[in-house]
Specification:
3-stranded parallel β-sheet; D-Maltodextrin-Binding Protein, domain 2; 3-stranded antiparallel β-sheet; 14 helices; 17% strand; alpha/beta
Length: 321
């Protein structure tokens, strides 16, 4: 065989190998399992999932994520009906599970609040809140509870020394703060850092005061039972995303700035403030879960004891350690 023939045959072999490689890559891409993850809104509470998506951690597990946004109550219904696979609404999932809905939180993301008690410029210190008004989103909700925690932390009594009224969601409460209709309100730290740039005063970060879970991922009991391997891979990628978020400040801050449309300086401040609120191992302590259960039972006027095994399942998180 002459040199020209050998070169031609070598080229054919190389092309054949390239075609096989393309086919293999295509097959792997086609084999990726598509799952839907619902989130109530864009925010810091769900950002580790965004990190895991952007860094390709789900794809590493053979998972193609479709992240959709829907109200928490609708998300619980969609989870039960099978219209979505996973839900990033810790509180709504927990409340549903307490009432007997067969779903469980399987990954803890933020084990402490991500709220800052922010006040109008005229309030320079916590003592200035006496006889003032704090705005919340609903009666007996998480924001209402955190307001009462803060007021007691400052040595005052809610409803006696400080009035607490319902004024709506975070954007509405910020408007009320700007107009002077309220004097302070707990808001997500990403909103708070923007408000501080406008001259509003940070009084306390609630994540430093109390261990109350804020975000996690829920799944149905049925999916956990029948498709445990897929759930395990989603759990592993999610925990990996949270760890990457906590261990890579500079890159995370840039991603956060891009995702939440805030300045890099604001993103850095939000990151540094909230870092310790995020779980290191994908679990929430029994103390934190029990406090949330206690508050849920009070809202629902329930007295029945609820075993934690009905509400959370950390077995997959433990398996991937």
């Amino acid at each position: 065989m002459n040199l020209q023939s050998r070169n031609r045959n070598g080229l054919r072999a190389l092309l054949a190998a390239f075609v096989l490689l393309l086919a293999f890559t295509s097959d792997r891409a086609n084999a990726a399992e598509r799952v839907s993850i619902a989130t109530p809104s864009r925010g810091l509470f769900e950002f580790p999932v965004v990190v895991a998506m952007r860094k390709g951690f789900y794809k590493d597990e053979g998972i193609d994520v479709d992240k959709v946004q829907m109200q928490p109550a609708l998300g619980v219904k969609a989870l039960i009906s099978g219209d979505i696979d996973f839900l990033l609404a810790w509180g709504s999932a927990l409340r549903a599970a307490v009432t007997g809905v067969p779903i469980k939180n399987i990954v803890g993301i933020a084990s402490r609040p991500l709220h800052v008690l922010i006040a109008r410029p005229g309030i320079q210190s916590p003592k200035d809140l006496r006889n003032k008004v704090i705005g919340v989103d609903s009666v007996a909700g998480t924001v209402d509870y955190l307001s009462r925690v803060a007021v007691r932390h400052f040595g005052m009594e809610p409803d006696k020394d400080v009035k607490i009224i319902v004024t709506g969601e975070s954007p509405t409460r910020l408007v009320a703060l700007r107009t002077g209709a309220i004097d302070a309100t707990p808001i997500d730290v990403a909103f708070a850092v923007k408000a501080e740039d406008e001259g509003f005063k940070r009084l306390v970060y609630l994540g430093d005061l109390i261990e109350l879970p804020l975000s996690g991922m829920a799944v149905t009991d049925e999916k956990l039972k029948t498709n445990r391997d897929q759930v395990r891979r989603v759990v592993r990628a999610t925990v990996r995303g949270t760890r990457y978020f906590k261990q890579n400040r500079n890159e995370t801050v840039l991603m956060l700035s891009d995702y939440l449309k805030i300045t890099p300086a604001q993103a850095a401040k939000a990151y540094d403030t909230s870092l310790n609120s995020f779980s290191d191992d994908g679990m929430i302590s029994d103390k934190g879960v029990n406090l949330d259960v206690q508050l849920t039972k009070e809202r629902l006027k329930m007295t029945k004891d609820i075993p934690l095994s009905q509400l959370v399942d950390w077995s997959l998180v433990r398996e991937i350690k």
